[in-house]
Write a structure and sequence with these properties.
By secondary structure, this protein is an all-alpha fold. It contains ten helices and no strands.
Length: 189
């Protein structure tokens, strides 16, 4: 299905919150002061606008896959750039850790269900979740990203956010509740 340029641009804008959630999930706390998730998403969307004619030929799922891949490359490029810079944070960055984050996120996005309808439903659920994640308060959003998207333990999240483990548990509980509520609202619209 070929879409108009305007429709494709609208689809790109619609995917922005999803891409921001993915970028935030990929960036470790050590990188946050050096690399901005919004900048990486903006760069990705600018690249997409440069390929707008080709992307207009794609359905929604392949379009999102293209955007995820472009974002992944932009994150890796930003980390490589930081590693070549002469600062202490950059020297401590390990690309292997970042690759593990990509693998974990890709596992969420690649369903191993048997039927095509189950794959579509799972990807739709994840898309709603990533978009809804951007509506959470920042502390809840970071707790959910670190625990559920990056796979850190409760103790590790507690250390990264510099709050008690019980505070993290509360952030996670409230964050998950709000995500479920917002995802249900999105589906009902």
């Amino acid at each position: 299905m070929k879409r108009t340029r305007q429709q494709t641009e609208g689809d790109l804008d619609r995917h922005r919150p999803i891409l921001i959630s993915l970028a935030e999930a990929l960036l470790s706390p050590a990188l946050r002061g050096h690399v901005d998730a919004s900048d990486l998403v903006q760069q990705t969307l600018m690249e997409a606008h440069g390929n707008i004619e080709e992307l207009g030929k794609l359905d929604d799922a392949p379009l999102l896959a293209w955007l995820r891949s472009a974002l992944k490359h932009n994150v890796l490029d930003a980390v490589r750039h930081l590693r070549t810079a002469k600062n202490n944070v950059a020297r401590n960055l390990r690309l292997g850790d970042l690759q593990n984050s990509f693998v974990r996120l890709e596992q969420l996005l690649v369903a191993d269900d048997t039927s095509p309808s189950q794959v579509v439903q799972r990807n739709e659920d994840i898309t709603y979740m990533l978009a809804a994640l951007q509506t959470l308060p920042s502390n809840q959003k970071m707790a959910v990203i670190l625990k559920h998207l990056r796979g850190h333990t409760l103790k590790e999240v507690s250390e990264m956010l510099e709050v008690s483990e019980s505070a993290v548990a509360g952030l996670l509980h409230r964050g998950r509740q709000q995500l479920l509520h917002r995802m249900q609202e999105d589906r009902d619209e």
